[in-house]
Write a structure and sequence with these properties.
GO terms for molecular function: polygalacturonase activity. It catalyses: (1,4-alpha-D-galacturonosyl)n+m + H2O = (1,4-alpha-D-galacturonosyl)n + (1,4-alpha-D-galacturonosyl)m. About 10% of the residues lie in helices and about 50% in strands. The protein has about 375 residues and is mainly beta. Helix 1 packs across helix 2 (about 35-45). The structure holds 2-acetamido-2-deoxy-beta-D-glucopyranose (7 copies).
Length: about 375
C-alpha cells in the first residue's frame, strides 16, 4: 500500500518542482534500500507557489514535516491540513496569501495529535482583509471567511505565527486538549475604521490551553472563552479590541479555571469582561485576572454583563459566576467611559475577591446590579 502511493507522490513532487530534502545521515551508513530512500525523501516536504496548495492537501500524510513556502491559496478553498499523522510539523515560510471570495472559510485548518505549527521568522499569513472589510463584520455586507481553524488537536503547539489582516475571526480553537499557543502576532491594525468581528482567539469546548507572548491588534475580543476549562494566558498585549473575555456564555456550557495575567490592554472597548447570554443556564467559576494594565477604554474598564443578547440592563440569573478574582488591575479609561459596570442577575454572582483594582478617568457607575457586597463599582 504505502510504497506505491509514496512512489506516485515522489514522481508528482519531482514533476511539480516540490522539494523533498534528503536526510543527511550522521556517519557512514549502509546504502539505504529504495523503499527507505523514497520514504525519507518524502519525510520533509516543501510546497510552494500556486501549485503547492493542492499537493499539500493530497500528500499531507506522507510528510513528517510540511513546509509551506510562499504559498498562494486559491480563493474559496481551505488549506486543509486536518487529520495529520501524529507528530507532524507544519512550518510557514515567506508570505502565504489567500485569494478573495465571499464564503465562510476557514482559510486554514489543522487537526491531529502532537502537531506543531510554526511560523518561521519573517513569515506572514496574509488574509487580505481589506478586500472584505466593509464596517459590517459578521452582521452583513460581504460574507467574510474565518481564518485559522485549530480544532481537534491534542498535545500540540502553535508558535511564531503572524497573521495580518484577517477578514473576520482569526483563531477558532475548538475541541482541543493541551495546546500551547506562544509568540503569536495578529495584526489587523489596518482595520481600525472598517474591520469588525476580527476576534483574535475564540475558544470553545477545550481543556488546558496555554497562551504566552501573544500580541493582537484587532476590532473584537482579543481572546474569548465561550466554554472550556484550565485555560491560562500570560504576557500578552491587546490593542484596539474588546478585551479578554469570558463568554458569551451560552446555555448548558461550563467555563472553569481561566487565568489571565501580565497583559497590557490598549484602546479597548472594555478590557476585562464576563458576558453571559440572557436566559441561559450555565456556570462560570474560578476566573482570575491579575497584572492587567488598562491603557484606555472607550466604554468600560471592567464589565460583567448577564443580559447579553437580551434586553440590555436586565440581567438574568441562570448563569452562576463564582470565585471571580481580580488582582492588580490598574490604568485608566477614556473620559466618556465607565470604569466598572456589574450587572448580575439576582443571586447569581457570589464569592468574588478583588484587590488593588485601581482605575482612573471616566466615571464610576451608580447602576451596578446584584453585585457581591464586598465589591465596589
Ligand atoms: C525537516 O525539516 C526540519 C525543519 O527544517 C528540520 O528541523 C528537520 O531536521 C528535518 N527532518 C528531516 C528528517 O530531514
Ligand atoms: C517569535 O516569532 C517571530 C516570528 O516567527 C520570530 O521572528 C521571533 O524570533 C520569535 N520570538 C521568540 C522569542 O521566539
Ligand atoms: C462549541 O462546541 C460545541 C461542542 O463541540 C459545538 O456544538 C458548538 O457548535 C461549538 N460552538 C462554536 C461557536 O464553535
Ligand atoms: C487551573 O488551570 C491551570 C492552568 O491550566 C492548572 O495549572 C491548574 O492546575 C488548574 N487548577 C485546578 C484547580 O484545576
Ligand atoms: C437550556 O437548555 C435546556 C436543556 O437543554 C433547555 O431545556 C432550555 O430550554 C434551554 N434554555 C434556553 C434559554 O435556551
Ligand atoms: C500585585 O502587585 C504587587 C505589587 O506590584 C506584587 O507584589 C504582587 O505579586 C502582584 N500580585 C499579583 C497576583 O499579580
Ligand atoms: C471562593 O473563592 C476562594 C478564593 O477567592 C476559593 O478558594 C474558594 O474555593 C471559593 N469558594 C467557592 C464555593 O467557590
Amino acid at each position: 500500500m504505502l510504497l506505491p502511493s509514496v512512489t506516485i507522490l515522489t514522481a508528482l513532487l519531482a514533476s511539480a518542482g516540490v522539494v523533498g530534502n534528503p536526510v543527511a545521515a550522521p556517519g557512514p551508513t549502509p546504502a539505504p534500500s529504495l523503499k527507505d530512500t523514497i520514504i525519507r525523501r518524502a519525510a520533509n516536504c516543501t510546497f510552494s507557489g500556486s501549485i503547492g496548495y493542492s499537493l499539500a492537501s493530497k500528500s499531507k500524510t506522507s510528510c513528517s514535516t510540511i513546509v509551506l513556502s510562499s504559498l498562494t491559496v486559491p480563493s474559496g478553498v481551505t488549506l486543509n491540513l486536518e487529520k495529520l499523522n501524529t507528530g507532524t510539523n507544519v512550518i510557514f515560510q515567506g508570505t502565504t496569501a489567500w485569494g478573495y471570495e465571499q464564503w465562510e472559510g476557514p482559510l486554514f485548518s489543522v487537526s491531529g495529535n502532537q502537531i506543531t505549527v510554526r511560523g518561521d521568522p519573517g513569515s506572514i499569513l496574509d488574509g487580505q482583509g481589506t478586500l472584505w472589510w466593509d464596517g459590517l463584520g459578521g452582521a452583513g455586507g460581504k460574507i467574510k471567511p474565518k481564518f485559522f481553524r485549530a480544532n481537534d488537536l491534542t498535545d500540540s503547539i502553535l508558535e511564531g505565527i503572524t497573521i495580518r489582516n484577517a477578514p473576520k475571526n482569526s483563531f477558532s480553537i475548538n475541541g482541543v486538549t493541551r495546546l500551547t499557543v506562544k509568540n503569536i502576532t495578529i495584526d489587523d491594525s489596518a482595520g481600525t475604521s472598517n474591520g469588525k468581528n476580527t476576534d483574535g482567539f475564540n475558544i470553545n469546548n477545550s481543556d488546558q490551553v496555554y497562551f504566552t507572548g501573544v500580541k493582537v491588534w484587532n476590532q473584537d475580543d482579543c481572546m474569548n472563552v465561550n466554554s472550556g476549562t484550565n485555560i491560562y494566558w500570560t504576557n500578552g498585549f491587546c490593542s484596539g479590541g474588546h478585551g479578554l473575555s469570558i463568554g458569551s456564555v451560552a446555555n448548558g456550557t461550563v467555563v472553569r479555571n481561566v487565568t489571565f495575567e501580565n497583559t497590557i490592554m490598549e484602546k479597548q472597548q472594555q478590557s476585562v469582561r464576563i458576558k453571559t447570554v440572557s436566559g441561559a443556564v450555565a456556570s462560570v467559576a474560578d476566573i482570575s485576572y491579575s497584572g492587567i494594565t488598562i491603557n484606555g477604554g472607550t466604554d468600560y474598564g471592567i464589565l460583567v454583563d448577564q443580559s447579553y443578547g437580551g434586553t440590555k440592563h436586565e440581567p438574568t440569573n441562570g448563569v452562576t459566576i463564582t470565585n471571580f478574582q481580580l488582582r492588580n488591575i490598574t490604568g485608566y479609561v477614556d473620559s466618556g467611559a465607565t470604569q466598572i459596570l456589574i450587572e448580575c442577575g439576582s443571586g447569581s454572582c457570589s464569592n468574588w475577591s478583588w484587590s488593588n483594582v485601581k482605575l482612573t478617568g471616566g466615571k464610576q457607575s451608580t447602576t451596578c446590579l446584584n453585585k457581591p457586597s464586598s465589591i465596589s463599582c
